[in-house]
Structure formats: C-alpha cells, structure tokens
C-alpha cells in the first residue's frame, strides 16, 4: 500500500501516513491544519478516503481544504482546481444516484457552485471542462452545453477518451446510433483496455441498429471483462428471451437471476423479472418485483415500465380499480412510444363506461402504431355507438380497414354491418352476408338468430317483404332449436331467457311483415298471441292500435293505446299516438297537452318528435285567418323556437328544417323559405311534405306550371291512390293558372274519394260556375258546349243553394255560398240569350257546311269526268300508235327482203383476194338505195355517183402519205366504182359489193337489215348533205337482233367519225329514240366529261386514242381514234346545236365490228337515228 508524507511545520521532519492505516478524517484534518499542509496533500488523502469508500471523510477533507490548506506555493492553482473539481464530481455522482428530487436538485446546485468557483481560477482546464460537461449531461436538460464542452476538449485533444464516451452518450440519447457506435469504437481503438462499459455501450448501439449478432458478441465481451456487469447480463437475457424458444427463455431467466444476484435493486433487472413472472402467472411476484423496481429508480421510463407491470397484474386478477390506478400512473411516466399503458387504461375506461376517455386512449395508441388491428377494431366499436355522425364515419373507416386486413374476422363484419344500418342498408346487408358466409364455411358454426333477425329487418327496410319474412322465420326456428339443444345446468338459467327474448322480438317483427303484406288478420293474431305469453309487451298494444286507426276505428285505437299506458304510464310513443289522434280530428288543445306531457318527463325533455309536433300545432294556428297580428306573430315565434330547439339537438333533422321553412313562408320570406325547402329536398327525396311546400312556394310566386308539375310528381311518387288534399292543391293551381277544365277534373277525382266533403263540393261548384261563365262569354262557343255550360251552371247553382243552408260554418262562410248562388241565378237568367246565339251560329254553320259539301262533291264529279276523258283519249292514241307500228313493221319486212345474188367464180390468181372481198360486209348508202317497188333492179342514181366521186377524190388527196395498202384499197374502191370487168347482172352486184361489202355467205346469216335512206333535197342551204334514217328493225331472234344492233351502231359511229373532220375533231351527237320514244344520247367526244353522274348512265370506252392531231377516217386506223364514249341517259335533253349529216355508209363494216367487240354489249331495241 502507498503512503503520503506530511512535512512538519518549521522543521525538516515529516509525518508519513500509510493508506491502509489512515486515521479518522477529523484527526487527519487536525494534523493537516496544524502543519499548514499544502492543498495537494489534502486532495491526495481525500481521494484515498474515497477509494476506501469513506465518503464522509472524503467530503470533510475536501471541504476543509478550501479554507485551511496552504495555497502559497508554485502551481497551487492547479491543485486548487483539482480539489474543487473532485468534490464537484462527487456531488454529481451523488445527485445521479439520489432518488429524492429535492436532494438531487440540492446536490446538483452544490456541484454547479464548485464548478463556477473553479471557472474563476482556470476556466479551460481539460479535467474541469470534462467534469462540467458531465454535470450538464446528467442534469438532462443541458445536453447541448455538454456537447459543446466535449467538442472543445476534443478539439484540443482528439483522443480524449472521456470526451469520446460523453459524445457517444449524447449521440445515443439523440438516437444517432451510428455516430454513438463510431465514438465507442474510437475510444476502444485509443485504449484497448477500456472497461466493460464501453463494450456494453457498443452492444446497445448494435442492438438499436438491428445487428443482434454483434450485440451478442459485445455483451459477451463485456461479461468477459466484468462478469458482474449487470447491463451486459440484462442485454444477453433480452436477446435470449426474444428467441422465444424454451431453451433460450430458460437461459434468459438464468441471466436475469445472475443480474439480480449481482444487483438486486437494479430496476431494469427487476422489471424484466416481473415480466417473466407475469407469463408464469405468478402475479404476487410480479407486484413485488415491479414495486421494488419502481422505488429503486428515478428514471421515468423505468417507473412507467414498473407501473405497467403492476397494472396488468391487477388487471388479469380482476382488480380493475388498482389496475386503473397503475395504468394511469404508467401513462404519466411513459414516453410517447410506450403505448401499452394507454391501451390498458383505455380498457379500464371502457369497463367504467367512459367511452370518450377510452377513445382518447386508443387514439393515442393508433397514432403511435398506425394500422394496429386491435386498436382500430376497438375504436370502430366505440365510435359506432356514438351519437356524432363524424365519429360514426370514423368507425366505418376503421372497421373497413380491419375487414380488409383480416377478411375472416366475423366480429368486425358484424360491427361494420351494424354501423352501416344507419346510412347504407345495402352495404349493411352485404356485410351481414359476408359474416354469415364466414360462419358457415370457415368457422363451421350455425348462424345466430340475432343476425338472421337483423338481416330480416334490413330486407324489410329495403321493401323486400318476402325475403324479410323468410329470414324472420329462420331466426325463430334457429332460436327454438338452440334452446332445445342447450344443456340446462345450474349456471345456465339466463340462456333460455335470452333465447326466449329473441323469439319474442322476431315474432313481433314477423307481425310487422304481415302488416306490410296486408295480411292484417295474421298480424293481429300474431300480436295477440305474443301478448298472451308476454302481457307487458307494449309495442304489440301500439301496433294493434295503429291497425285499428288505419281502419278508421278511432275509439278502438284509443283503447289499445290506453292499454299500453296502463303498463307504462310514461311511455312516449303511446302518448304521441294519442296526441296524433286528437290532431287528426283537429282537436289542437288536447293534442298539444299530450305532447307537452311527454316533454315534462326528464327522460324525454328533448324528445324531437314531441317538439316538432308542438311546433306543428302552433304552425297550424297560422292557417286560420285572424286580424290579431300580435297573436299571429307570437304563434310564429313559438313554432320557430321549437323547431330551432330540435335542430340544436340534431342538426340533421329534416322535419325541423321543413317547419322553419313553413314559418318563414308564413312571414312572407318566400325566397328564404324556398332555399330551406330546396336544402331539405337535397338531403332526402323521400319526404313528401317538402315537395308540397315547394309547390306551394311556386304558387305564391305565380309559377303555376312548375307548381302543377310538382303536385303531379308528388302524387305519382308518394301515393298509390288519389290524395284528396293534394288534388285540392292541384285544382287550386289549375284555377289560378286559368285552366278551369283541368281544375274541374282534379276536383272530380277528389270527390270520388271524399263525396261528403263540403269544401270539395264548394270548390267544385265555384269552378263549374267560372267555367260556365267563361264559355258563355266566348262568342265562338258551339251549341253543345253552351248547353253543357248551362247544365253545369244549373248544377253549380244547386250546390251553392244547398251549401248556403247545410254547409260547414267552421270551414267556409255560408254567406259567400249564398252570394255565389245568387250570382249563378243571374247567369242562368242570361243563359237563354247565349243559347239562342249559339243555336243561330250552329244553324248558320250547318248551312255553310252543307253548301261546302255540295261544292266539293261537284268538283269531285268534274274531276272524275275529266280523268275519264283523258284516259279514253290516251287509250285511243295508244291504239292508233300500235296500229301504225304494225303497219310500219309490215312495210319494213317487205323492204328488207333481198333476192339471192348469183356467185361468180373468179380466176385462180384472184381467188384469195376475191374471197377476202366477199367476206367484208357493206351497207349501201343513198346512191345504191332500191326504190320502193323496184327492189333488186334499176341503175344507181347519177347524181349520187357524181357526189360520191368528189368525196373519193378528196379522200384520196388526204391519204397520199398513207401506206401502200391504203392506196391499194383506194384504187380497188375506185375500180369498183367505175364498174370494170362485170357481166350481166354484175353491175348490181358490183354496186352492192362497193356499197354493202357483204358476201353471199354473210347475207345468208342476216334475216333483215336496215336501209338508210336520204332525201332528195340537196339544196345549198343544207350544204349538199343528205339525211340518213335507219328504220326500226324487226329480227327473227335475239342473236340476230344483237348482231343487227351492233352493225347499225358501228355504222353510225363510223359515219360520225368521218363527218367530224369537217366540223370539230371528235365531236358528234346522234339522238337515239327507243321504242318507248324516250330520249337517249350517244356522245362521241374525248374532251367532254360527264357533269352529272347517274346510275342509269353507262359510259363505254370503245376505241383507242389517236396520237395525231386530226382523226383519220380510214378504217384501218380506227383503233387509234380518240377515246369514244357511249352515254345512255333517258333524262338529259339534247341541247347541242351541232348535228351530224350522214351522207354515206361505211363499207368495211366487219372491221368496225371487230373493234366494237372489245366494248361491253349495248342493247338498244328498235331505235331510229335522226340528224
């Protein structure tokens, strides 16, 4: 052991004090005072006292050194700083261990004072700064100051281990676990022999960072360094317990036991042991350990844990008062992340019936743990029972989330269905269906009768009465079967009562279904049978009274309601129904008293139904005309006050809002009333009163069309039968709109329902009178209408006379009825004049109508005669044309008959040429035409020959540049024209060959052929041109007809091409008439486009295009002629002034036909070609 030497005063001797033989502190202080020892000796002895756990001597020596020590030597300031900092550090440690807050505060104050004194000596001493930093760190609320001082030290000495450890603590408390781990690692690298606490800190950082394996290694290393390290033992125990295996749990408990053996007052150890014994169900040990932990710590988090352990131990034992107390204390100590005490406290509030505070507790839990299944389910159940719509909406949201997360949770589906019953009937029904499906398929359990009853009630509200009836019957059967199968024990006496209650309720609901199905006898029997078994079932009495009321048996209904009052004299529904009976009979006073009686009861002081009924009573008094404006205003204010009271209690009450709108309308605030009615109608479309009120507003605003439409829509939507009151409103709107006939019809419908209603009779008489007056004043009214008006006026007169004597004085003024009767009498006295006027108008109209009928008949007769004459004329014309046609056909047959031509045998050298010439058919022109009566004989006309020769010469001159073949053909034709080398009869044959070009073989195939004749008029005005006429054809069969048509058309086309050179290139027009004399056109022009496309117009491309500027009439080059189109159109008239004069025909017709064969077949039957 060491020692310390104390120099004796004024000598060279010393006193040596051995540390293991230190005397009492007071004795040492006396020695040090006497020898006036330097302060560093005082500090050394004080530290040794502290090492020997002699804390009191340690404090005494340091406190005395501040005033009694020798400080008059070199570097005494450092020793003085050491003394002050050492004592201050001791006070900081004591304060950290102190549990009493006052003593803790006192110790921290002493330490702060010492550090402040030291600041005046050497402020920036490293040890001094470290001590002061730890003071700030342990005080808790000065962490930033501690961090600044640690940073200052680290700037001067980067490897200062206390500063590194301090920074690690600060980072850990700020949840910057990576930074804290880095500081611990740096401290460990700086000094590998750091104590076990450094490893412990690293283990906590690894655990927070989710690295459990390294945390385990750190805890194990800490235990290697210090087997009694409680923190490491607890850390290892937690890691073992979290594995949730039997062996690991056993190891964890053993580690906790070791920690408890080391430090039995460690609150962390005690709390974990209490948690272990809670699951062991050793609740007495839980309470003992937790309470011990609570008293051994000042850390609020530790205390919260201790209180929670005690609270749940009391909770599971049923001691809810003690559990509530400790749960509440735990919430006071707990941090925001420790939410288990709030969960337990919420359960305690539910047990106490304090749902508001319970909801607050669970809201805190849900805020810390969003989406927590149990919390959302509990909150949904709590808010479902709330009267606040917003909270019910929250409950709906929570339960929907629960069912989405856990779709097999039957309880959540049932809770959701119960919430949706208030707002979404179909959604509630769907939720119940899902719950029943889960119960059947997954839980394999029977559906409880309560759920079946609720489903039946939902179907009833949805209007599906048959389905509702089926579920109610199933509920009754299930309840009976459950009651029979339930074993009866001593502790199950309440079960049969519950099942019986379910049967009674469902049976009552079944009676309501019978009422809805109009099975009134069954419903009445059902209610009475229920009353036999349960005479105190008040609702059955009320339903029997309502059924009697609906049958019109008011007194019987009143008796049933009074029977209910005998069972429960303060039943609000019974008093309300009796009050309604009085109001229906317009007994406002007795009805008012009944509702006031309800409001006098404490339980029903704010009964909305009674308040609205009283408001309606005061509102009804406003309908009675009165001259007392003050009284009317008071009644308005009372009604308005009652309606406002209801809205304060329930701002969604549509009946109260509707009443306020009515009061405003009575006050004359029409726009405001209309706005309120519109808002109510937006809230619900199933409230008929608001529809009627909107219609009344339209009437007041003189918007009669809208009012009529609203009344009619209301009747169609809400009433299956004619409603007398609404029909009266409708007739009033018609009356004000001037539609008297529609008003009369509405009143007649109402009278069919209520024939004895005198108000209806009065209104009907008034409408009949006004309608009759209108008709009589109209001078255009016919006799029948006037007579009917007089009849209705007489009926109105009788009605008013009867009403003036026998009417209801309380509903209208009898004097007014008498005045209207007199007015009807006056109108009846004037009626004869109107009848006479109408009769004279009717007779005059009858005469005029008879005269017009005669004129129309004469005109029709004249038209028939004219039509007959035209038809006869048309028939005669048709017969004449048919006769002419037959004559023409007969003449044509005779004109187209030819004699058989003799064949000549040509020389052998000319045989092939002759054969080729014989195969080319020809058509004769006017020069070879056989005159009538001289067929096949007679020379050709010289004049035509003379005309033909110049044309041939002209043709020859134009074709000088053509091929030798063309020149040969021209010479051949010329030779034939001169008639060289012919025998007897050959002149005719030669002429026919030239002009016709047909061999005998070809002629044998033709039955008849067209003869184109020209007139003899060759005057200069006509240009020497002749007209060619192709007469109508009559062929033997269809094949010959087509052949003749094609040949004739080819000839015409060729002639047009030949003639076009003298006029305009490629321009020609031939008008064609078929046998029906309808116009058609054949256009030969490659420039003209079809301006009006028509499905009846056919455009056929026949020939090719000519590359030269001028079309050549040579038959060999016909294929190169410009595009040739044929348009057949019966509707386009001929407006072209250019006409083709046909002078001669083509000779080589077969060549034209060969080119024509490329075109589609064109059928034009019996046509004639004109110029």
From TrEMBL:
Signal peptide positions (record): none
Entries under InterPro entries matching the protein = ARM_TT21_4th, Ctr9, TPR-like_helical_dom_sf, TPR_2, TPR_rpt
Q: Would you tell me the Gene Ontology cellular component terms?
A: Cdc73/Paf1 complex
Entries under Pfam families matching the protein? ARM_TT21_4th (PF25068), TPR_10 (PF13374), TPR_2 (PF07719), TPR_8 (PF13181)
Report biased composition (Basic and acidic residues) as residue ranges.
Answer: 476-491, 949-981
Q: Where is the composition biased (Low complexity)?
A: 999-1014
| Claim: Transferase is one of the keywords in the record | no
UniProt entry keywords in alphabetical sequence: Repeat, TPR repeat
Show me the TPR repeat boundaries.
196-229, 304-337, 339-372, 449-482, 538-571
| Gene Ontology terms describing biological process | regulation of DNA-templated transcription; transcription elongation by RNA polymerase II
Q: Which residues form the Tetratricopeptide repeat protein 21A/21B fourth ARM domain?
A: 166-330
The UniProt entry, under PROSITE patterns, shows: TPR
Q: Does the keyword Phosphoprotein apply?
A: no
Ranges where the record places region Disordered? 476-498, 846-875, 893-1025
**Which is one GO molecular function term here?**
RNA polymerase II complex binding
Protein name per UniProt: Tetratricopeptide repeat protein 21A/21B fourth ARM domain-containing protein
Give the species.
Daphnia galeata
Give the lineage. Eukaryota, Metazoa, Ecdysozoa, Arthropoda, Crustacea
């Amino acid at each position: 052991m060491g020692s310390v030497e104390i120099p004796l005063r004024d000598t060279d001797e010393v006193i040596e004090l051995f540390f293991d033989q230190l005397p009492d502190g007071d004795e040492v202080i006396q020695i040090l005072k006497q020898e006036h020892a330097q302060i560093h000796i005082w500090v050394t002895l004080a530290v040794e006292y502290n090492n020997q756990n002699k804390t009191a001597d340690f404090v005494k020596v340091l406190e005395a050194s501040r005033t009694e020590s020798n400080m008059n030597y070199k570097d005494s300031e450092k020793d003085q700083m050491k003394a002050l900092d050492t004592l201050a550090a001791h006070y900081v440690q004591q304060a950290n261990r102190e549990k009493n807050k006052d003593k803790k505060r006192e110790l921290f104050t002493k330490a702060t004072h010492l550090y402040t004194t030291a600041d005046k000596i050497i402020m920036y001493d490293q040890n001094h700064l470290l001590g002061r930093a730890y003071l700030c760190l342990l005080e808790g609320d000065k962490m930033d100051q501690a961090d600044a001082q640690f940073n200052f030290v680290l700037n001067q000495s980067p490897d200062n281990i206390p500063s590194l450890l301090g920074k690690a603590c600060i980072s850990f408390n700020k949840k910057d676990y990576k930074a804290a781990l880095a500081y611990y690692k740096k401290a460990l690298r700086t000094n590998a022999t750091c104590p076990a606490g450094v490893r412990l800190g690293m283990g906590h950082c690894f655990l927070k960072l989710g690295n459990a394996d390294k945390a385990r290694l750190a805890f194990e290393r800490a235990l290697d360094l210090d087997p009694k390290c409680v923190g490491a033992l607890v850390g290892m125990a937690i890691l073992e317990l979290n594995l949730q295996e039997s062996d690991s749990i056993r190891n964890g408990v053993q580690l906790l036991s070791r920690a408890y053996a080391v430090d039995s007052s460690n609150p962390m150890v005690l709390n974990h042991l209490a948690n272990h014994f809670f699951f062991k169900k050793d609740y007495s040990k839980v309470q003992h350990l937790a309470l011990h932990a609570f008293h051994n710590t000042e850390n609020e988090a530790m205390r919260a844990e201790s209180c929670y352990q005690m609270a749940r131990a009391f909770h599971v034992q049923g001691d809810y008062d003690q559990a509530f107390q400790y749960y509440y204390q735990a919430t006071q100590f707990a941090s925001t992340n420790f939410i288990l005490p709030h969960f337990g406290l919420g359960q305690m509030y539910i047990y106490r019936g304090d749902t508001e505070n319970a909801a607050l507790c669970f809201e805190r839990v849900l805020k810390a743990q969003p989406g927590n299944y149990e919390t959302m389910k509990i909150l949904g159940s709590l808010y479902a029972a709330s009267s606040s719509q917003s909270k019910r909406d929250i409950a709906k949201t929570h339960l929907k989330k629960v069912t989405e997360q856990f779709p097999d949770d039957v309880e959540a589906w049932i809770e959701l269905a119960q919430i949706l019953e208030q707002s979404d009937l179909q959604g509630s029904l769907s939720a119940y269906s899902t719950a029943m499906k889960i119960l059947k398929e997954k839980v394999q359990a029977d559906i409880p009768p309560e759920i079946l009853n609720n489903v039946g009630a939902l179907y009833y509200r949805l209007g599906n009465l048959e389905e509702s009836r089926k579920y109610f019957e199933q509920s009754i059967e299930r309840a009976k079967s459950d009651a029979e199968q339930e074993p009866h024990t001593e502790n199950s006496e309440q079960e049969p009562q519950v099942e019986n209650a379910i049967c009674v309720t469902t049976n009552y609901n079944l009676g309501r279904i019978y009422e809805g199905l109009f099975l009134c006898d069954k419903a009445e029997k059902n209610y009475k049978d229920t009353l036999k078994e349960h005479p105190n079932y008040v609702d059955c009495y009320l339903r029997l009274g309502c059924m009697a009321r609906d049958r019109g048996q008011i007194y019987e209904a009143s008796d049933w309601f009074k029977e209910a009052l005998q069972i429960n004299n303060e039943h609000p529904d019974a008093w309300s129904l009796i009050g309604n009976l009085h109001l229906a009979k317009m007994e406002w006073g007795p009805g008012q008293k009944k509702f006031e009686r309800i409001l006098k009861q404490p339980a029903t002081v704010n009964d909305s139904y009674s308040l609205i009924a009283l408001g309606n009573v005061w509102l009804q008094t406003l309908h009675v005309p009165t001259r007392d404006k003050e009284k009317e205003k008071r009644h308005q204010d009372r009604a308005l006050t009652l309606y406002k009271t209801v809205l304060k209690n329930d701002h969604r009450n549509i009946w109260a809002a509707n009443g306020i709108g009515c009061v405003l309308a009575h006050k004359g605030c029409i726009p405001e009333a209309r706005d309120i009615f519109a808002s109510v109608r937006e809230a619900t479309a199933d409230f008929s009163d608001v529809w009627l009120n909107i219609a009344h507003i339209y009437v007041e605003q003189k918007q009669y069309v809208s009012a009529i439409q609203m009344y009619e829509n209301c009747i169609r939507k809400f009433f299956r039968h004619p409603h007398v009151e609404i029909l009266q409103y409708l007739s009033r709107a018609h009356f004000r709109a001037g539609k008297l006939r529609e008003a009369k019809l509405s009143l007649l419908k109402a009278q069919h329902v209520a024939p004895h209603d005198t108000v209806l009779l009065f209104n009907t008489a008034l409408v009949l009178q006004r309608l009759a007056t209108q008709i009589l004043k109209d001078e255009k009214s016919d006799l029948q209408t006037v007579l009917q008006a007089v009849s209705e006026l007489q009926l109105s007169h009788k009605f008013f006379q009867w009403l003036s004597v026998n009417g209801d004085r309380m509903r209208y003024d009898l004097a007014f009825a008498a005045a209207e009767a007199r007015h009807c009498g006056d109108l009846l006295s004037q009626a004869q004049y109107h009848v006479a006027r109408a009769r004279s108008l009717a007779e005059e109209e009858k005469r005029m109508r008879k005269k017009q009928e005669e004129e129309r008949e004469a005109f029709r007769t004249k038209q028939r005669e004219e039509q007959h004459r035209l038809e006869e004329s048309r028939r005669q014309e048709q017969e004449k044309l048919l006769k002419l046609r037959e004559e023409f056909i007969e003449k044509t047959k005779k004109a187209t008959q030819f004699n058989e031509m003799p064949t000549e045998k040509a020389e052998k050298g000319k045989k092939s040429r002759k054969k080729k010439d014989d195969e080319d058919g020809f058509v004769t022109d006017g020069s070879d035409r056989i005159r009538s009566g001289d067929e096949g004989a007679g020379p050709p006309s010289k004049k035509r020959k003379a005309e033909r020769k110049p044309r041939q010469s002209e043709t020859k001159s134009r074709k000088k540049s053509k091929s030798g073949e063309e020149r040969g053909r021209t010479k051949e034709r010329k030779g034939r024209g001169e008639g060289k080398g012919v025998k007897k009869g050959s002149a005719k044959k030669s002429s026919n060959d030239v002009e016709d070009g047909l061999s005998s073989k070809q002629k044998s195939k033709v039955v008849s052929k067209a003869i184109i004749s020209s007139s003899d008029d060759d005057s200069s005005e006509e240009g020497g041109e002749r007209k060619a006429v192709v007469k109508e054809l009559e062929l033997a069969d269809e094949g010959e007809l087509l052949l003749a048509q094609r040949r004739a058309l080819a000839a015409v086309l060729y002639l047009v091409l030949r003639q076009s050179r003298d006029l305009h290139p490629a321009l020609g027009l031939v008008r064609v008439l078929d046998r029906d004399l309808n116009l058609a056109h054949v256009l030969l022009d490659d420039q003209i486009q079809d301006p009006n496309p028509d499905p009846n117009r056919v455009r056929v491309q026949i020939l090719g295009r000519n590359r030269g500027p001028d079309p050549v009439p040579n038959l060999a080059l016909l294929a190169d002629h410009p595009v040739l189109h044929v348009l057949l159109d019966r509707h386009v008239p001929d407006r072209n002034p250019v006409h083709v004069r046909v002078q001669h025909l083509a000779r080589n017709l077969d060549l034209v036909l060969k080119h024509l064969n490329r075109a589609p077949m064109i059928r034009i039957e019996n046509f004639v070609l004109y110029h």
